[in-house]
Task: structure prediction
Amino acid sequence: MAQNARLRGPGILVFCVLMYPAMITAQQPALHLMPLPASAQSGAGSLEVDSSFSVAFVGHTEPRLERSGERFLLQLARQTGLALALKPAKTARATLVIQADHASKEIQEVGEDESYVLEVTATGAKLIAPTTLGAMHGLQTFLQLVDVSPGGFATPAVTIHDQPRFPWRGLMIDSARHFIPLDIIRRNIDGMEAVKMNVFHWHLSENQGFRVESKKFPKLHELGSDALYYTQDEIRDLIAYARDRGIRVVPEFDMPGHSTAWFVGHPELASGKGPYEIERKWGVFDPAMDPTNEKVYKFLDDLIGEMARIFPDHYFHIGGDEVNGKEWDANPKIQAFMKVQGIKNNEALQAYFSGRVQKLVTKHGKAVVGWDEVLVPGVPKDIVIQSWRGQASLAQAAKQGYRGILSNGYYLDLGWSAARHYAVDPMSGEAANLSAEEKQRILGGESCMWAEYVSPENVDSRIWPRNAAIAERLWSPQEVRDPASMYARLDFVSARLEWLGLTHRTASRHMLQRLAGSSSPVEFAALRTLADLIEPVKDYTRGQTAPAEPTNATPMNRVVDAVPLESDAGRRFNDMVDQFLAAACHDPAAEAGLRAQLTTWRDNDAILQPLAQRSFLVKEVAATSQDLSALGAAGLAALEAIAKGQPAPDAWKARHLAILEQVKKPKTQLLLIPAPAVQKLIEAATAGGTCSAAKP
Ligand code: ACM
Result:
């Protein structure tokens, strides 16, 4: 989003670092599972996974389950490099026996049984589930359990009883602001399957593009998409692909605002005079459908009917967010209509529109999902509210009898850490005080990948691995919330996700290689050292601080586009500082580790500067590179001061804190992540600091 961006509610989040309750810790063996299961009991020994590994189905079977067995074997073969037989066995003497009791629904529904029991012993494994869906989830759990061991690949003996906490666990991808090709959507659906998410919410229309082929109104995609749209056959294939992975597909056609691209081919739907062009910038724009025009409803009836036949899911998202009302205010016919009908303001006018559209959606056999703006008095109760402006609206919706899903706190584009998303719980805040019946109405949540600053090249890295932490929040028991445990497992799962073809790790390296051009290996290593420690600015700051107003033609080849949204190296450095300080600075191993890193940082800029002179894209981070050197030097000075065993003088402190203030200022939309940790070292070295008299 540009300068003024999609608006934001207060969205104040208390970042609670709550302890993982002892009970859960005690009962959960240390497994690399994400999401953690509802319960797990360790057994004795482990099950070898070698090239004789086999899978067999007993009980209910169906083509989807058989295909999931084949994909499981293929994935296991990839993960281990073993030459496995890739077809499920015919006998029940297989290593892993899968028993599903019955089929899932033909069209996947909210709240179907997704539970399973997985029992692994030293001699074999059994996966039992009431439905196909549960069996598919259990297979993903098994894949995560397989690891190297001294004697070969193996799965620890364990008994897992698992089911999701919430029935609606989604990821939304905005394919409209930047078009996301289908192969990328597919591999993200593979990632969702791996972390047991079950709803793909596809944001398909926007000011910047109408991304679905319409046979009924071909001008929608022909004139509204720059030829970047999905054909109906492609969409049907994608829906089948998602269904095979236990994932529903909910389409979103955003209206009455966020709809400029519709009006390029169909200006008669709009409230303004036009002509309209595809929007190239980011933000909230004036064009909106005309709620007073009966032809609009006739058109939507036909279009929703056409789309309802393509998308089998029971839910149909009509958007409804961020209508600024300017076209309505400026249109005398609309103003006259409002007067005659007694419609007092634009909110009421939108409610009138939503009510009409909701009837059309119902007529075509579907139920409406809408952003929280659609929650106004009188909307029918079968609507699902997607809360983005604040968590309170979710609780209010539930109190009024509406079902809802939480997205506030799960906006992946805001660049928050996994821990910060992880701390957001659909049942916290006002929702915690709801009655049991009201709580039932909170169906879960969805992470949202808005695509202003996302390209096909880096979208995986904007979704993963952080999305796995949100997936765990929505699947695992509420008590599972220790960030240290989450990060330990996230590191593992992140690497595993790459076996699915996701590029969240590799893309960054490729992009850095492009911007480094013909760098020497030493220079490239220096660029990576810097890149590993920086993150793009958070929230909506990027749009607000852009040197020139960004558009969808702005290249996304800068360092800010290449680096991950969360710096693992920065987090680990911070952990090491905390460990050092917790030991009152008497931790020689941590001290040596810190010294080694700080020295590398201090000396990094001298290596990188020649490359910055040769590459305009590296030059952009020259100031940040100098900051990293300053940070390294300041951290080393703090270690020296601590080693002296007496408080560093006030003047020393003031000088170093001034350096830190400088370093903490974002430059070229980048944050140097270890700055606060180095500040802790400086403060520890001064009077009253943790380590100011560390070595008496
Ligand atoms: C939204 O972010 N406007 C739903």
User: Anything to note?
Assistant: Confidence is low (pLDDT under 50) at residues 1-5, 7-27.
